[in-house]
Amino acid sequence: MNDDLFKNKYRIPSARAYWHDYNHGYYFITICTKNREYFFGEIHEGKMTLSEIGLFADSYVDKINALYDDAQILSHIVMPNHVHLIISVVCTKCINNNNDIIRDDTDINEKMSMIGKKRGRMSLVLSKYKSSITRYALKNDIHFAWQTRFHDRIIRDYNELNNIDNYIKNNVINWKDDEYYPIITR
Fold first, then answer.
1. pTM of the predicted model as reported, rounded to 2 decimal places
2. Is the backbone of residue 119 left (phi > 0), alpha (psi -120 to 50) or beta?
3. Domain segments of the chain: what residues?
4. Which residues does 162 contact at the CB level (< 8 Å), separation at least 6?
5. How many angstroms separate the CA atoms of 133 and 186, rounded?
6. Quick one: CA torsion of 91, 92, 94, 96, rounded to 10 degrees?
7. d(CA 155, CA 145)
8. Cβ atoms within 10 Å, residue 126
9. Class of domain 20-174
10. Which residues pair with 31 in a beta bridge?
11. 46, 172 in Cβ contact below 8 A?
12. Helices 121-139 and 108-119 sit at what angle, rounded to 10 degrees?
C-alpha cells in the first residue's frame, strides 16, 4: 500500500521528528487559527485585548496544568490568530508502541486515542487543549476553527528555552514583526 494514501486519499506526512517519541522533553509549540483569522482578539498600541474565546484559550492553560501531572505549560501567549506554548513533558509511564493495529471497525474515538498514543504524550496534551477550546466555541455559538496540526520545536538546551520564553513574553510588543502578522490587516 502507498504510504502517501489513507483510505485512497493523499495525506501530508507528519512533521514530527521520526527519531523522537515526544513523551519527554521541552517543546516550543505554535497553534494557528484557520486561515490565521483573528479569533482570539486584537492588538492595539502594544496591548492584547482578548475576545471571549481568547479569554477561554488563555485560562484553559491552567486547566491543562491541573489535568496532567506529567505535562506542564511553562509559558504561553495567546495572540490574535495563534497561541505559543512552552510545554514540558516528563512521562515515565508512557510507552510508545508502534505495533498497534487500528482496525476499520474500531470506534472513531478509540482510533484517535490509539493514533495519539503513537504520536507521544505531547500530542495528546495539545489535542486536549485544542478540542476543549473548539468544544467551548461550539457550546457558546462562537465562530471558530483551528488550522489542522501545529508546529513544534524540540528545545535542546537552557539558552534556547530562555530565548523562546523571552520571545513569547515580547510577542505582543513585536507583533508587527511576527511571521503570523497578516499582510492584509482587518
1. 0.74
2. alpha
3. 20-174
4. none
5. 23
6. 100
7. 28
8. 25
9. alpha beta
10. 83
11. yes
12. 140
Q: Where are the beta strands (DSSP E) in 65-171?
A: 71-78, 82-90, 151-155
C-alpha to C-alpha distance for 2 and 12, rounded to whole angstroms: 13
Cβ contact 146:130 at 8 Å: yes
- CA-wise closest residue to 124 among 98, 154, 87: 87
Confirm if 29 and 85 have CB atoms less than 8 A apart.
yes
- Per mean pLDDT, which range of 38-42, 81-85, 177-181 is the poorest? 177-181
Q: What is the pLDDT of residues 68-122, one digit of tens each?
A: 888 899 999 999 999 999 999 886 665 444 433 333 444 545 544 554 444 577 7
- pLDDT at residue 17 is higher than 80: no
| Of 7 and 160, the one with more pLDDT | 160
Query: What is the model's pLDDT at position 96?
Result: 45
Phi, psi of 118 (to 5 degrees): -70, -30
- Closest C-alpha to 129, from 80, 180, 87, 177: 87
Dihedral of the CA atoms 5, 16, 137, 48 (nearest 10)? -140
* SS3 state of residue 17: coil
What are the tens digits of pLDDT across the range 146-167?
A: 998 888 888 889 999 999 999 9
